[in-house]
Structure of DNA polymerase IV:
Amino acid sequence: MRGEATVLHADLDAFYASVEQRDQPSLRGRPVIVGGGVVLAASYEAKARGVRTAMGGRQARELCPDAVVVRPRMDAYSAASKDVFAIFRDTTPLVEGISIDEAFLEVGGLRRISGTPEQIAVRLRERVRVEVGLPISVGVARTKYLAKVASAVSKPDGLIVVEPEREQEFLLPLPVERLWGVGKVTGAKLHGLGIHTVGELADLEAATAERLLGRAAGAHLHALARLKDPRPVDTTKRRGSIGSQRALGSRPRTHDELDVFLTQIVDRLGRRLREKDRVCRTVVLRLRYGDFAKATRSRSFRIPSDRTALLLSVARGLLAAAMPEIEARGITLIGVSLTGLGRADSVPPELDIDWDDGARLDSVLDTLRDRFGAASVARATQLGRDPGWSTPVLPEHE
């Protein structure tokens, strides 16, 4: 016996769009697109018409002209995520969050007090539906990888349990794109080699897979195809970085517009640092040009900081340096990541220098936003301009 199927992968269905349909009953059963310039989320009614996440808004509306396009409401999505994760943690103390809308849960050892893993999954889905009002799909398996594949196959709003004795029966007939790490490029390469299913990849020798796909990728994907995934649910990981980004569509953007978006992003990231008593060592500016090529620019501090004014000053310097390239190529996305995170109490005390009293200003703004909402206070440069958020602050890989 290779162990029990005790790992749950819980994944909210079309999360942003589902929150919009929950909060606006008139949208239920209708195709919904979140985000205008670039699709951030699409309801299953819109997905059935070919709309996909990260698709351009114009193309999405051509595919689905009767879709309802709504602006993103990041505060609502964040609140819903917190409610769902509270249910996860009430289900088991062993929760590994993957993103704002999905997590792994280890429920082994709970059989006496909570029932079988399948019974636990059934109750979890019901609680999320009743208490938060959202559909969620769950896969249950022996490993994280298989649980994630099972939840994807079960969508929308489903539950699949993959018992150890039927793992091969479940996995091997699936399209090779179901493997964790196979995107469009790798999928096309595998198809070109005549490999269309997971089973066909598993039939190769490991050395052959490494030669065809590269040593690291080939070894990783071949191991998954042969049901090798030793990673346990990890509840100890700390964020190595946090980041947020804004999709901009395809129209030209001025420096002033980009500065507004940059300010919004950095304001929120700085607040998140202070909420978690963290500091960062490096600011990374992330750009996607009009031709969809990506670029990053970064600058590190000698002493880590959580001061919004300092973070914004560095981010603005990086943006200014990138403007000639932006003006020449256009821009479709701007984002910021704060990396090299550490505990605030690990930073040596600063000298008693005013620095325009930035720490006091940060504290006052944080307090106001906690009490009256994230949009209650804005910088003067943002007045009369779009305050929308396209993506939440999410953990990135360490």
In short: The chain has three domains: 1-165, 172-225, 241-395.
